[in-house]
What we know:
This protein has one domain (2-109). The termini are far apart. The radius of gyration is 24 Å and the shape is rod-shaped. It has a six-stranded mixed β-sheet, with helices on one face. It has 110 residues and is an alpha+beta fold. The chain is built from one helix and six strands.
Amino acid sequence: MIDWFASKLGVIVFVLVVSGILFYFVDVQNSIYSSAVIVQEVNDLGKVIDGLCGNCSTEYDFQEERNVTTSGNLLYVNGIKRTVISEFVDGSVQKKEIVIENANGKIKIK
Length: 110
């Protein structure tokens, strides 16, 4: 009787450990995917900014609300940095939809 109970308890512990490891890997995979989405958005936004004509503006929509900070020619989105050709007006905005303006060679994000 004790052998039977011990074997069932061992199987339960084994299943719990394997399930925990599986859920951990799923969480890591989800974290990597969400970081990759932000990196792709930063690259897309950088291409839009680099291709922006003089004295014009455009809009960009993120998938979720993002924190966008600009300084010099550096663009930060949720802490991920990208260098662009143009100079920015220093600032910070936290929105899902941003407006990018090029006025006299300086890029302003609002």
